[in-house]
Write a structure and sequence with these properties.
With 464 residues, this protein is an alpha+beta fold. It contains 15 helices and 18 strands. Strands 1, 2, 14, 15, 16, 17 and 18 form a seven-stranded mixed β-sheet that branches. A five-stranded antiparallel β-sheet has the order 12-11-10-9-13. Strands 3-5-6-4 form a four-stranded antiparallel β-sheet.
Length: 464
């Protein structure tokens, strides 16, 4: 923490008062460079073992089965290494190979498909029900069929169900699309598949989810999640879309601590039930709640400051905005109590920003296209009247007076660009004009205020 002492006061009543600016942890971006948030993209690692007993086709007994699996579809963080800044990390379980059932014929497998709702007519109906889901719509026609098959199997918590596809490599992409569209699949830990071959040519593939909990436990957790979400959204009826997004952003940040301690930190249970999570849990919970309220919201897979990361894009009043709930939580980048003392509980710098802004320190995974976010009307600072084009003295005075009238001890501002940010910084901090608006007398006679700045997003926060 650095100290800045104000020059002799410009006003007579404060002439003998020593004023101090506290610079909080050398700016937010610097802090973020020291930390990481691995743990998002569900990746696939497969193994093949040959000559395993498998499916016997009724008319040809030469068909043999070999299995591979999604190595827990490794929810991203398993691929991260621990770093000095605290990278998310989890040991990877050893890859297991699942043997196919030697007693099932192709007719048996097809019958089983129909029993769980995968008849030809069912598949058509499932495709209609999934139409409009963001990642589903990015798939080709055959991939969409595979998507709804996997979705139905996972929803039913079934195992060893015959797929129409014979190319296992499609599963990586399609499975990622399914889990990106469906944060309610909190009970998954990846998937396994079994390939059945004849003369080294794949004839059939069966698919199984890898489930964290049995059906009874899933139902119990879903009831608890439903109750939690209902309590969080009560009172939001009648609010406009921006207000709903903002209040959900605030609620998730205030009720969740950034921590890798939760065993469910890659899914929504960590946020709604354990109250501690990592970026993937934050992003999925935010998506779950916005979709619950009828606001389109997707997961964005990517990276931030060299580590894997996940956040969201939401559609507000017809326009798209990036939202990073994880980076809005000060517990993400500061764990020491002395670093957070008195600091705002919420950082609004990443509430509804453009692609150009988020790209300054986030990298978007190019495996899937995401909407280009250019609108600013629902940006937090724009909507709240905290957006400045430079050192606008009258407006700044009005902002701080309004904050004091509401009993607020913290104020955040956003500049329109680098030049406006520099003008704000030079006046409020360099010339210490902030003391004309904000600050508190200490027991030792000092007049103090703390602040943090984000030069990448042009935001300044002050708190007494």
């Amino acid at each position: 923490m650095r100290y800045f002492k104000k020059r002799k006061a410009e006003t007579k009543d404060k002439r003998k008062v020593k004023r101090t600016l506290y610079f909080w942890m050398a700016l937010l971006p610097c802090l973020l460079c020291l930390t990481g948030c691995g743990g998002i993209t569900d990746l696939l690692k497969t193994e093949q073992e040959s000559d395993m007993s498998g499916l016997k086709e009724e008319e040809d007994a030469e068909v043999q089965g070999a299995s591979g699996e999604g190595a827990r579809a490794v929810s991203g963080d398993a691929l991260s290494e621990e770093t000095e800044g605290g990278q998310e990390y989890r040991d990877i379980e050893e890859n297991r190979v699942e043997e196919g059932s030697g007693s099932l014929t192709k007719s048996d497998l097809e019958k089983r498909r129909e029993e769980i709702g995968l008849s030809q007519a069912d598949v058509i109906g499932l495709q209609e029900s999934q139409a409009g889901n963001y990642y589903y719509e990015q798939l080709g026609s055959n991939e969409k069929i595979l998507y709804v098959e996997c979705y139905q199997i996972l929803m039913m918590q079934e195992e060893d169900i015959l797929l129409t596809a014979t190319d296992a490599e499609q599963l990586t992409k399609v499975y990622q699309c399914v889990i990106n569209d469906h944060p309610e699949l909190f009970y998954l830990n990846g998937y396994t598949y079994t390939q059945y071959t004849r003369r080294e040519e794949v004839q059939y593939i069966t698919f199984s989810g890898r489930y964290l909990y049995d059906a009874e436990e899933v139902a119990r957790r879903q009831d608890a999640i439903d109750a939690e979400v209902e309590s969080k959204v009560s009172g939001l009826e009648g609010s406009d879309e921006y207000e709903i997004v903002k209040r959900i952003y605030e609620d998730l940040i205030l009720s969740t601590d950034y921590s890798m301690d939760s065993p469910d930190n890659q899914n929504i249970c960590s946020v709604f039930l354990d109250k501690k999570s990592v970026c993937n849990g934050y992003a999925k919970a935010f998506q779950y709640m916005l979709n619950y309220m009828g606001i389109p919201c997707i997961i964005v897979n990517g990276s931030a400051n060299g580590g894997a990361h996940a956040w969201n894009i939401a559609q507000i009043d017809g326009a798209y905005y990036h939202i990073d709930t994880t980076w809005g939580d000060p517990s993400y980048y500061s764990s020491a109590a002395e670093e957070k003392e008195g600091a705002p509980d919420i950082d609004y710098s990443y509430l509804c920003v453009t692609t150009a802004e988020i790209s300054k320190n986030h990298g978007i995974d190019t495996a899937f296209a995401v909407p280009d976010c250019t609108a600013v009307s629902a940006n937090y600072f724009v909507r709240e009247g905290l957006y400045l084009y430079g050192y606008e003295e009258e407006k700044i005075a009005e902002i701080f007076e309004g904050a004091k009238a509401q009993g607020m001890s913290a104020v955040a501002l956003k500049a329109s660009g680098s030049q406006a940010y520099r003008e704000l910084y030079d006046n409020l901090i360099g010339a210490q004009k902030i003391f004309d608006y904000f600050g508190t007398y200490q027991a030792d006679g000092e007049y103090k205020i703390a602040y943090s700045g984000n030069e990448e997003l042009y935001t300044l926060s002050f708190w007494e």
